[in-house]
Amino acid sequence: MKADIRVCSAWRDRHDRPVYTLGEVCPECGAATENAVPAPFSPEDHYGEYRRALKRRRRQ
Ligand SMILES: [Zn+2]
After folding, report:
1. Is residue 5 part of a domain?
2. Where would I find the H helices in the chain?
3. Alpha carbon distance 37, 32 (integer Å)
4. Which of 8, 11, 34, 45 could cross-link with 15 by S-S, CB 3.0 to 4.6 Å?
5. Distance 19 CA to ligand 1 centre (A)
6. Residues bordering ligand 1, an ion, CB closer than 5 Å
7. Any domain includes 33
8. Angstrom distance (rounded) from CA 49 to CA 51
9. What is the Å distance from ligand 1's center to 3 Cα?
10. Is 54 a member of any domain?
């Protein structure tokens, strides 16, 4: 069985968190959705981790 979860393509601008749906448009803002393929990592998340690691290190 193939999951066909989609996610609002503009959620970073318009929502606090990803808005998942099965439809072609976001039920909350009407923006187009894109396939919510679980990426191994996203550059943004990667740098977020990096920043958090730096902050943690600085605090010690
Ligand atoms: Zn949306």
Report:
1. yes
2. 11-14, 43-59
3. 15
4. 11
5. 6
6. 8, 14, 19, 26, 28-29, 31
7. yes
8. 5
9. 20
10. no
**Total domain count, the chain:** 1
Euclidean distance between CA atoms 51 and 24, whole angstroms: 34
- Count Cα atoms within 13 angstroms, Cβ side, for 52: 6
- Give 55's pLDDT tier (boundaries 50, 70, 90): confident
Q: Answer for the pair 21, 8: CB distance below 8 angstroms, yes or no.
A: yes
Query: Domain span at residue 20?
Result: 1-38
pTM of the model: 0.57
Asked if residue 43 belongs to a domain, the reply is no
Q: Could you report the per-residue pLDDT of 23-44, keeping only the tens digit for each?
A: 999 999 999 999 987 656 565 6
